[in-house]
Amino acid sequence: MRIMGLKALLLTACLSLAALVAEAATWNSRVTGSDLQCRVRTAANPLTDAKGRNMTVVYLENLACEKIGQNPVETDVQWLLDQGYQVVEVDYAGHPAAKSPDINMDIIAINDALSGGSFGGATNCSDHRSYILFEGYRLARDLSYYKDDPTVYNYPGGYTEGDSLYMDVAYPANASRPVPVVLSFSYSNSWHGNEHRRLFLGYTLAMFDDSFLEGAPAVGIAWAMADHPKYCDWGNGKPVGGANKDYSSFEVNPDAARKVKSAVRTLRGRAGGLGLSGQVGIYGFSRGSDAGSMAVGDKYVADFEQAGLYQGLSSAVQVAALGSGVFDFTEIYQDNTSGDERLETLCPKAWGELRTNRDKWEYQSSVYLVETQASAPVIFFYNHSDAQYYQAQIARFQRRLKAKGIEYGEITDYASGHAVPMDTASLAAMYRFFDKHLQPSPDQSADLPGSAKPVAQSGVLAVPFDLRVVSSTRDEITCSFSLSAPAEVEFSAYDITGHLLLGSHRTLGAGVQTVKFNTTAMRWPQGVYLLRLTAPGGTQVQRFTIR
């Protein structure tokens, strides 16, 4: 009996090993101009999508860029296999061109192949649950970032409880240093019965040859893709008080802004466990640009902020790249030749005529959330051959940023029509813009000289919210905020490079607080600064300017 049991055990082990046998193949790389070795490895318990296709990770190895995740490659690949992914290892053998932005050319080609169901010897690949990861990275899949309101968008009409919205995060495992993250909102919808379509290649990355997000790890930036805020079948939203298809071409606030800000806070709240620094950038194109632009402005709207997850954290972002989108609904054209005919019809139907309901129209527009210089810098990208109203919308956003003294840039005519940058020069410019503004997080201040001691945690959380810098001069800084309970709190101020300039502790009561700091002796120069407030239960960061 013991011998038979041992044989059965060995047979089971052999079958498990056989399931993980690697199959070799080659793939011709655009970057190296040569055939690269590929190895397909199948998990013992494969993950499949709703159609039974293999969830696949294409794992790029031996690159010429910094490897931030410090695990051995085999450790991370085995982790992916243990999760159930089909893994295709692609070996670049240290080729000097295997770095940003050239590597994006291969990302484009790989996604095009995956959208057809096969790559590098792997077959039956999912067209919406497949990923490209750099060595050292892992995948946190299906992180909930918001629970939807069933009275607004969910479909069909029988819903009584909303779905959760999710995001996928590619993060460095065992990171050598915390990294910032760039967040994008899918321009492909998910909905009940068709869940998790945020990376549907046929309408996102492969359709538009969009590689900025998945190429970000080559410049030291993690990435996240979130479900689009309008979580329903296209054209089947059901806004309260509106006809079924009123919002078939756009989303509505406070619903959309709540979700966007909750997604940013979720990334910040999960940062410590994912090797992230807490710094967040936004990347948006088309409908994803409409959504992402909601995170750019610094204006505090309680209806937007007091919903969703991690409400004690800041929803501010540090930088954004926005493609063609709609940012100011009050500026839509009143003719039938600019490309926004649906908006011209549906916006008045949903909100009433502009001349008598301007506040409601502005409430839907991300431009009006840009209130001070604390808003995020933006690099815009578009083609002049795209629809006229997209160009007008970007010009409107640029005027707003300029009026508030906020940096912006643009990349134009890199392709034709409604498209994203895919050439190396444009991608390099966008990555440089992000690198400039994604500085080390103030949350890493414990490593800075002169850092104040951490705030002690207690059994009672004093979650801080609504932090505002009321006034700021060379002599005095005044801020206001609220605490949910009495606590000892920490204040820290930094310049825009993350250098600590001020550290202070105060013991304060619950409720609305106003605190002043005398800075006469510090002689701070003109510029943009960051004020951080930390209390047991949360942290908020606010930009301010000294002129």
Identify the overall geometry: globular
Sheet-strand content, in percent, reads 25-35%
Low-pLDDT regions = 6-19, 440-458
Distance between the first and last residues' Cα? 85 Å
Number of β-strand runs = 20
How many domains make up the 3D coordinates?
Answer: 3
**Mind telling me which CATH architecture of the largest domain this is?**
3-Layer(aba) Sandwich
Give the CATH class of the largest domain: Alpha Beta
Q: Please state the oligomeric state of the protein chains shown.
A: single chain
User: How confident is the prediction overall: mean pLDDT?
Assistant: 86
Q: Whole-number radius of gyration?
A: 24 Å
Q: Kindly name the structural category.
A: alpha/beta
CATH homologous superfamily annotation of the largest domain: Alpha/Beta hydrolase fold, catalytic domain
Written account of the structure:
It is built from eleven helices and 20 strands. With 547 residues, it is α/β, with parallel strands linked by helices. It folds into three domains: 19-125, Alpha/Beta hydrolase fold, catalytic domain (Rossmann fold, 3-Layer(aba) Sandwich); 136-440, Alpha/Beta hydrolase fold, catalytic domain (Rossmann fold), CATH 3.40.50; 451-546, Immunoglobulin-like (Sandwich), CATH 2.60.40. Strands 6-7-9-8-10-11-12-13 form an eight-stranded mixed β-sheet, with helices on both faces.
